[in-house]
Specification:
10 helices; alpha/beta; 12 strands; five-stranded mixed beta sheet
Amino acid sequence: MRLVVVGAAGRMGRMLIKAIHEAPGCILSAAIERPGSAMLGQDAGVLAGLPASGVLVGEDAPAAFAAAEGVLDFTTPDSTVAFAALAARARIAHIVGTTGLEPQHLAKLEGSAQETAIIRSGNMSLGVNLLAALVRKVAATLGTDWDIEIAEMHHRMKVDAPSGTAVLLGEAAAEGRAVDLAKQRVAVRDGHTGARVPGTIGFATLRGGTVVGDHKVIFAGTGERLELSHIAEDRSLFAQGAIKAALWGRGRKPGLYSMADVLGLDTL
């Protein structure tokens, strides 16, 4: 499968290039960076710590998409929206691991998904998506007298909060309870907040060091507590999940899909 990596010079971009190199049945078709990047013209393989690949980092995304079957995108919300439009025009699978997407970005992705397959997830790992399926089931089983809190910690350089994975888990909890997360979400507590409002879903965000990603969903009842957690020890698992999603999405009919679709977890 011919794959394009956008944001190729970034940390995840380089990891995606390496994952493609190691994945049977995949080939790096192009590596794209923003105009003016100091990495333009560099060999993408060397950039990722591999032998020279012959694929040079470029900036012509439309041409790259036209010659590929899929694009792997862990960039920024605005860039992802632009790439989605290009992927729709080229009719290639668009794998989105970008976090920090706001409702206006999601609405535009839904529009592009009318023309091509878009697979979006706040986290591409098998473990996290299995955790989300479990959270959905537990939330559906327990009543609102059980409080739900989601705690996450990431490295000091992460720019969005709460993490995309935490939001993914919050959405799973809300789906389990058949409520709108936007109406039940409590993202910040500071000062004299009063008693906890029943039925709300709380988030706690920690940043520091080089933590890849720790997530915990706490169901707190009267006299007992259930905790489900996931610890990411190696960022490469996100790249491996993206490859799996791309292979699944090749030739898939247009639509907006999730990693739950890719992994067949919707029945849990």
